[in-house]
Amino acid sequence: MAISAIESIEQGVAVCDRTHWGRIKVSDGDRLRFLHNQSTNDFQQLQPGSGCDTVFVTSTARTIDLATAYVTDDAVILLVSPHRRQFLLEWLDKYIFFADKVQLSDLTQTTATISLIGSQSDAIVEKLGASALIGKPYGSHLQIGEILFAVGSGLASPGYTLILPIAEKANIWEKIQELGAIAISEEDWEMLRILQGRPIPDQELTDDYNPLEVGLWQTISFNKGCYIGQETIARLNTYKGVKQYLWGIRLSAATEPGTNITLGEEKIGTITSYTATPTGHFALAYIRSKVGGVGLQIQAGEATGEVIAVPFVSHEYP
């Protein structure tokens, strides 16, 4: 099961059903300005056909969700984490004032999301008629019929994400597999996202952490001016005030999220996610920045471990 998931993304292409993720449509004339003011990335410079990842944060810059935004001619489609759709709909609605030209629509029940993941995904996208996307930047997208094709797999691996009417899902899913993609399960996705370091709400994205600690530099604009949480993020960056970072850990044994990480007798961090892999045990964890990073030897409960970098996040501003 897990071996085929890893091999398929390294040597071929996997396909994953992400329909349980949320899809929110933000429309009307002030949509870009509105999202610009509500999240960390720079929406004002986005043109139709482009996209980006962005983080919704609290007023004190604590993480709510990592979302992907696709800018179309008349709307922005937000792909948000499972279990965050309703919260974000209510959160965003709270900031729409009387004069704002902003409309929110929940597309989750009427649409589906499918992601292609892996080194050979270009070939399948070409056969599906979206070859114009090959080589384009992350978040670039185009519409073919009723299907939105976008660059980016949702992980650090290369790939594409499709958003389509729910009625078309079974047909497209079957066609993608006929073209050679290997279907992977939600459990496989979870293993891959932990190995690659993609953070999710309630584990790596919580009231305890800000986007700089997570390592989501690519989602943050430091030049765009005021937005919710901006003052805290700017201060942390200016004064190098990040006290902990998200890392991967190769472990000697299974462990549980919430397990303390220690160095000698000192607590230096906390496990946030764990997965068993074909080659051993792996976790994501926040570790205090002053004690070190890659190569650090740690203890997590009964397990020993080594800190490694994960490709989805970075701890240096690009």
In a few lines, what is going on in this structure?
This protein is of the alpha+beta class and 318 residues long.
Biggest sheet strand line-up: 8-9-10-7-1-11
**Overall helicity:** 10-25%
- Overall 3D form: globular
Number of strands: 17
Biggest sheet: strands, sense, closure? Answer: 6 strands, mixed
Which parts are unreliable, with pLDDT below 50 for 5 consecutive residues or more?
none
- The SSE order reads HEEHEEEHEEHEEEHEHHHEEEEEE
Task: Return the average pLDDT rounded to an integer.
Answer: 95
Global Rg: 20 Å
Query: What structural category characterises the helix and strand content?
Result: alpha+beta
Q: What is the CA–CA distance across the termini? A: 35 Å
Q: What fraction strand?
A: 25-35%
Number of helices in the DSSP assignment: 8
